[in-house]
């Protein structure tokens, strides 16, 4: 079993819809959680960086962490065609620089 | 204009040849990282460096080597000992070890 599980998709939603992307993990020591956006043939771009449980909002993006369920989510409101990309979750322990990545979810926003 | 640059964008090599991928950053970051990305797999850590003249193996270091002689530069050599070198290689950096990591644009290496 992988430490971090992420549905690869593909996920297609109409423009303007709310998108929900999720990752589950098995290592209860993970405390720092990240979401990256990766366009085709480009490097990942850091979207959200959160610590422990709770919500964090940045513009149209909301990151949610539920440590009791070992489940993290990224919500995208008012989705745009420019949001079409692969979204990667990543996480690490306290004091450990090593990130563990999910495999990524490919998202397409249909105009 | 601060950022991380990787060159070249595409690289083609024959089997049995060593090849060096460049990574440069002007963000004044102490820590730098090399990852490999393959279809259907998450990013996997090859090597990382927390400070100049120091580096550690990641999860898949076999067949790779690195150096960190300058703060700004962290080149990766893919040696002929690497069994499946064809992949997308990503360099990242962070202000300090453990901080959020920022990625370069990547180098796609194809070995035939």
Model description:
- The complex is a heterodimer of chains A (111) and B (112).
- Chain A is mainly beta and 111 residues long.
- Chain A has strands spanning 4-5, 11-14, 19-25, 30-38, 45-51, 54-58, 61-66, 71-76, 85-93, 100-101, 105-110.
- Chain B is mainly β.
- Chain B contains no helices and eleven strands.
- In chain B, strand 5 (44-51) and strand 6 (54-57) form a beta hairpin.
Distance N terminus to C terminus of chain A? 37 Å
Overall pLDDT level of chain B: 94
Helix content of chain A: under 10%
Shape of chain B: globular
**What's the order of the H and E elements of chain B?**
EEEEEEEEEEE
CA-atom Rg of chain B in angstroms:
13 Å
Strand content of chain B: over 45%
Principal-axes geometry of chain A comes out as globular
Percent in strands of chain A: over 45%
How much helical structure, as a percent, in the residues of chain B? under 10%
Output the structural class of chain A: mainly beta
Largest interface: A-B, 26 and 27 residues
Q: Descriptors for this entry?
A:
heterodimer; A: 111 residues; mainly beta; six-stranded mixed beta sheet; five-stranded antiparallel beta sheet; 0% helix; globular; B: 112 residues; four-stranded antiparallel beta sheet; 11 strands
């Amino acid at each position: 079993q992988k430490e971090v599980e992420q549905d690869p998709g593909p996920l297609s939603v109409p423009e303007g819809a709310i998108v929900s992307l999720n990752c589950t993990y098995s290592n209860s020591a993970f405390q720092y959680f990240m979401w990256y956006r990766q366009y085709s043939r480009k490097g990942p771009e850091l979207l959200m960086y959160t610590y422990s449980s709770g919500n964090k909002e940045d513009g149209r993006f909301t990151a949610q962490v539920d440590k009791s369920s070992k489940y993290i989510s990224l919500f995208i409101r008012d989705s745009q065609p420019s949001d079409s990309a692969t979204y990667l979750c990543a996480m690490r322990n306290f004091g450990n620089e090593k990130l563990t990545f999910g495999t990524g979810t490919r998202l397409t926003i249909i105009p | 204009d601060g950022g991380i640059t990787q060159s070249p964008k595409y690289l083609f090599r024959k089997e049995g040849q060593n090849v060096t991928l460049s990574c440069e950053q002007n963000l004044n970051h102490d820590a730098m990282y090399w990852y490999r990305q393959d279809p259907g797999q998450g990013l996997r850590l090859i090597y990382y460096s927390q400070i100049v003249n120091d580096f550690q193996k990641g999860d898949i270091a076999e067949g790779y080597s690195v150096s960190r002689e300058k703060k700004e530069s962290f080149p990766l050599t893919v040696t002929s000992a690497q069994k499946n070198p064809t992949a997308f290689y990503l360099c990242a950096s962070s202000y300090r070890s453990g901080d959020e990591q920022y990625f370069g644009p990547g180098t796609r290496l194809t070995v035939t």
